[in-house]
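step 3/5: co-fold with D-xylitol-5-phosphate
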Amino acid sequence: MAYLAPSILSADVLQLQKQIEIVEQNGADFIHIDVMDGHFVPNLTFGPFMVKAINSISKLPLDVHLMISNPEQYISEFAASGASIITVHQEACVHLDRSIQLIKQCNCRAGVAINPATPVSALEVIVEIVDLILIMSVNPGFGGQKFIPYTLNKIREIKDMALVKNASCLIEVDGGINEQTALEAVNAGADVIVAGQAIFKQDSIKSACRLLKGIAQNTAKVV
Ligand code: DX5
Ligand code: ZN
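step 4/5: write tokens
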């Protein structure tokens, strides 16, 4: 069984509260918030103010994905704004262990993300000390991109590595998730499915959310 984390990157900002309510009522387990700085990735999105605003209207844990350079500088501010999970990119952290410890000191769950071209071996040392590993299945920066098939193997690899090391981290997949790729990712071992366009850019956010939740919960249904 996997969890569903709708990404508000693809939501209509002018209807954000309403759309968050819809996903909350139709199977979302987390709200995924993509923070981009125009430096680590070629796009700009939200800051701590957005996390704080969403925290004031949502009961769900906020899954904050930091696609920013020098994330250490902002971790405490995101924690104070209501983040439950804070995920930093391995590629953005010179002192990754320090970043993980800082997230934990702020009483948040600590996640580490890797880009498609970063090998799973880069996580070998830290897999036992994090709460979540995020396998990017597109190059980070934009919603609506195509799922990169070779990342499925990375999900299997990290799942095996976590099992061997008896690590209890959740494995999250983010980018290009639709009915088909959600099924493949869950079958490969993903515990959390992030979806942006496949939920918020559909005619019915409610039906799209329910459909992906069904896939996340029980892969057999859609085979
Ligand atoms: C991409 C972001 C994703 C994005 C996914 O850099 O990290 O969370 O919202 O969007 P979709 O599901 O549309 O690929
Ligand atoms: Zn994301």
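step 5/5: annotate
The mean pLDDT is 97.
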